[in-house]
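Case study B.
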Amino acid sequence: MILTTPNGMDSDTDQPAGPNEPRLSRASAGRLSLYLRSLESFRREGLGKLSSGQLGESLGVSDAQVRKDLACLGHLGQPGIGYSTNELIDAIRRALGIDREWKAVLVGVGNLARALLRYRGFQQQGFRLVALCDNDAAKVGTTIEGLRVESLDDLTAVVRKTGAELAILTVPAEAAQAVVDRLAATGIRGLLNFAPAALKVPHGVNLVTVDLTVQLEQLAFLVQWSAPER
Amino acid sequence: MILTTPNGMDSDTDQPAGPNEPRLSRASAGRLSLYLRSLESFRREGLGKLSSGQLGESLGVSDAQVRKDLACLGHLGQPGIGYSTNELIDAIRRALGIDREWKAVLVGVGNLARALLRYRGFQQQGFRLVALCDNDAAKVGTTIEGLRVESLDDLTAVVRKTGAELAILTVPAEAAQAVVDRLAATGIRGLLNFAPAALKVPHGVNLVTVDLTVQLEQLAFLVQWSAPER
DNA sequence: GGATGTGAACGACTTCACAGCG
DNA sequence: CGCTGTGAAGTCGTTCACATCC
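Model:
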């Protein structure tokens, strides 16, 4: 499988062209995650089969869009019948690369980090937080949710020992780039960044940034220019 | 100003067509937030003027893209010179509707809520958390960061008294839809949802969902299908 | 009949390229 | 000359419509 690489904005995932299977755009990948969430919910309700229309409706996506997205994963649907919930879930997890466990190290032990540590949703999707790092000497050595806080200086050792491939950044914006550079040097392959900063990552390291302020601003924008006049 | 309404996916911001100023796509709006972050950083460094190239480079956006985005805000650039940092910041804040204070009520007092409460970035961008609600009787009446936790049953009164227009949802996925319905009834106009659930909002209420698991999945996807074979 | 898979049409967004201004 | 603003061209993604299969 190969993914299409439209505009950049973050990450620098250059695609070193593999075999020419049907391409999976990043937009599709984003929706696949959502389909997965819906499908799991449908499965809990005991629904074994569903149509593109049903799946789409729950998310506000057109049936055609759903079929297009799913078509990339192979011939999973049966005309006249629909898709098997279980097969879809498996196929999507495979396509997203989450049909296995991913280990992540959490860098920056603040309130957000604590919240993420206690969040069960990550585990459920196969993400495991295996280590904690911070440069605050007062925090190093303390234990949170069963994990000992390690020094930032030991980053390389920690990554190597735990085998973490991903890192979650919950450090202040000013410190973020420096931490990224150190993380890149450890061979980490993916970064989930919560700092409100535009980060540069070297080739081969993937970056996804979640800027909560940006999300709030988008919301304000929508509200501001939507219906009822004020 | 009026915004273009491409595909839905979340929110239901129907655009009741206003005067035909240059349109601001949602994609552009997302970038404007990022420009803003960069511009503030440039300003802190004392940079009074900059070009579309400089601004774009810091974010991995082409200079042409930056100019196109900024062109919607009026004639701000001077050929041969560039843009004024201050003017740009003001114009973007106006365009995004954040040239004023937005009050928000936080519903669901868990770890994430605590992290958000302590996060200073919101205040800095003009977002103020003015109230806290939870349906857990054990939490009601306690105080966090100077805010008293109110009962969910008092939601309407709380919203009315504080004048909150936005709500931030940090409740479990199962509870989310019910809370949304109650919030919608209070006349809230925007929702920032952190629950991993596909929510339905009535007409006139705007929704932005931040699903942290989705973001991690995107990252796994990128790493999985990027360079170095494993 | 009911639902999939898919080319073709369409629309939105991005990049290109250049005229025009400071 | 440098940089903006902008039509034109190009690319990407979504919707339509229908042949096809159960």
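The domain at 8-96 of chain B is CATH 1.10.10.10 (Arc Repressor Mutant, subunit A). The remaining cases will be described in the next quarterly update.
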